[in-house]
Amino acid sequence: MSPACLPLVFLLLLERTSRAHFPEESGPISIALDDYVKQYAVFVGNGLGRFAGQDGGAERLHIQRMLTINRTLFIGERDNLYRISLESATAGEMRYHRKMTWRSNKHDINICHMKGKHEAECRNFIKVLLLRNDNVLFVCGTNAFNPVCSDYSMDYLEPMGDNISGMARCPYDPKHANVGLFTGGMLFTATVTDFLAIDAVIYRSLGDSPTLRTVKHDSKWFKEPYFVHTVEWKNHVYFFFREIAMEFNYLEKMVVSRVARVCKNDMGGSQRVLEKQWTSFLKARLNCSVPGDSHFYFNVIQSVTDILEIEGRPMVLAVFSTPTNSIPGSAVCAYDMAQIASVFEGRFREQKSPESIWTPVPEELVPKPRPGCCAAPGMQHNSSSLFPDEILNFVKTHPLMDESVPSLGNAPWIIRSVARYQLRKIVVDNAAGPGRNYTVVFLGSDSGTVLKFLIRANLSASSSPARASSHSLLLEEFETYPSDKCGKDATGERKLLSMELDKATGSLLLAFPPCVVRAPVARCHQHSTCMKNCLASNDPYCGWTPEGSCIFVERNTRLAFEQDIGGIKTSYLGDCEVQFLEI
Ligand SMILES: *[C@@H]1O[C@H](CO)[C@@H](O)[C@H](O)[C@H]1NC(C)=O
Ligand SMILES: *[C@@H]1O[C@H](CO)[C@@H](O)[C@H](O)[C@H]1NC(C)=O
Ligand SMILES: *[C@@H]1O[C@H](CO)[C@@H](O)[C@H](O)[C@H]1NC(C)=O
Ligand SMILES: *[C@@H]1O[C@H](CO)[C@@H](O)[C@H](O)[C@H]1NC(C)=O
Ligand SMILES: *[C@@H]1O[C@H](CO)[C@@H](O)[C@H](O)[C@H]1NC(C)=O
Ligand SMILES: *[C@@H]1O[C@H](CO)[C@@H](O)[C@H](O)[C@H]1NC(C)=O
Question: Which of 133, 318, 366, 500 has the fewest Cβ atoms within 10 Å of its own Cβ atom?
Answer without folding.
Answer: 133
